[in-house]
Amino acid sequence: MEPTKVVAHKTLRVKSGRFSLGTTLMHVVLIAWALTTIYPLFWIVNNSFKMSRDVMNDSFAFAWSPVLTNYMNAFDRMNIGMSYVNSLIMSFSTVFLVLLFGGLAAYVLSRFQFRGKRTIYSILYATLLIPAFATVVPVYELLIHTKLVNTYLGLILPQTAGNLTFATLIIAGYMATIPKELEEASFIDGCNRWQMFTKVFLPISQPVFASASIFVFLWSYNDLFSALIFVNKENVRPIVALLNEISSQYGTDFGLMATAVSLTVIPVLLVYLFISKYIEKGLTEGAIKG
User: Fold this and answer.
1) What is the pLDDT of residues 4-23, one digit of tens each?
2) Structural domains of the chain, count
3) pLDDT tens across 195-208, in order?
4) Pick the residue with more confidence: 165 or 3?
């Protein structure tokens, strides 16, 4: 065998070995990360099928004889069904408003050239640095004056305002990558600006809209801080606020607590599984400006 071929063969073997070692380490790390993420969820669901005394005695044992008492009590004693409905109404309404106004704002920022555009971008980025806690008092005062405290809009509007900047920026970044030739072709076909947004930009931007929707839904659904302040009555109380009261009302019933947490996670998993195929594509393509 020629010397050059021997060197090339050894180099290929070394690279192949390194690639196999790197791939193995990567899989080990991902498996370890998955276990730390999946096992706590399995532990909660498993304990939800046990009585409280069994959870106290051995919480890590598998529930070989599952019971549904905790789930029945969750709907009878805690009225978790109403909290479910409240959370879904508020979260989906927030997602809808954020995508509507954020999509329109992103379309203008990404496809129009006008004076003050950079200033608007600077203001949007600056608002991301403002913590939500700093706006609680003025927002609460506004809700009191408009009589929206302890109503659906009392939580929907603040959450919409809080998530609107994030959605606008990532959608604008994605729309900026759409070729200008599509816009020109739409003008030739007689589309106005609204038709162009709904028939051209909106379908093409489905991945980034899906990515924004899952993040907005998660932030809205899990927003305990705002829920405790703006909607603290039982008839409009979301499910995260209900969980906060379980420790005081049913502090010794750990099986019921595990059941409530399990029921809380279900909508998040369903929403994620429904649009997960769009998330990676939307985030990666939206980060590239062409």
Assistant:
1) 444 445 444 444 444 578 78
2) 2
3) 888 888 888 888 88
4) 165
User: What integer pLDDT is reported at residue 19 of this predicted model?
Assistant: 53
Closest CA to 80 of 256, 271, 272, 268: 256
Are 201 and 105 spatial neighbours (Cβ–Cβ below 8 Å)?
no
Are 216 and 270 part of one and the same domain?
yes
| Dist. CA 196–CA 104, nearest whole Å | 12
CA distances for 64 relative to 47, 58, 182, 257, angstroms:
11, 13, 59, 19
115 and 169 share one domain:
yes
pLDDT score for 10 = 47
Q: How many CB atoms lie within 10 A of CB 244?
A: 13
- Specify burial of residue 125 (Cβ count, 10 A radius: 0-12, 13-18, 19+): exposed
- What is the C-alpha to C-alpha distance for residues 169 and 124, in angstroms, rounded to an integer? 8
Cα–Cα distance for residue pair 251/53, rounded to 1 Å: 13
Report pLDDT for 128: 87
Domain containing 278 equals: 69-286
What are the C-alpha distances in Å from 30 to residues 19, 35, 73?
A: 16, 9, 38
Same domain, 10 and 77: no
**CA dist., res. 117 & res. 135, Å (int):** 25
